[in-house]
Design brief:
Blueprint (H helix, E strand, L loop, with lengths): L1 H30 L3 E6 L12 E10 L4 E3 L12 E4 L5 E3 L9 E5 L4 E6 L2 E10 L6 E11 L1 E2 L8 E11 L4
Antiparallel strand pairs: 1-2, 2-8, 3-7, 3-10, 4-9, 5-8, 6-7, 9-11
Amino acid sequence: MMKKYFLHLTHGAGLLLILTMTVLGQSDSRKLDPIKWAVKSDLSARALKIGEKFAVQIVATIEENWHLYSTKEIELGPRPTRFSAATGQAFALAGEIVAPKPLRAFDNNFNTDLEYYEHAATFTVPFVVEANASAGKQTLIVQVRYQACTTGLCLPPKAVKLEVPLEIQNPQ
């Protein structure tokens, strides 16, 4: 009787341990953030004019063993890295994004050749000050959508918002 009770107790404890590890593992995978984003801009020293084009550099720092997919769309592949201006602001995208040359290799996760970056990548993203922009201090909000993977694990696509403080000249 005691042996049967002990087996039942250890079986229940084992299930509890597996359940706890599964829940902890899921919350840990949600916390994985192998790509760190930053903005480089020298625009804070001067005011921009209505209609003026300008560029900001978006820097991705990529953790060891991870990669960030390029901006190129590949059929049946991962989500490419995308940049956009948040809607309802005084700025819009204004041309082609300049990206560094990506690495290219066969990816077992998607069973095709893909383009990606390792370690770091700097993108130059062009914007324009919209005609309806108000003079004064404004914030450019750049949205980045991307997907990060290792050789055996892909995280779900993710979006981040990066803010760039700017000033717009009073039109005269």
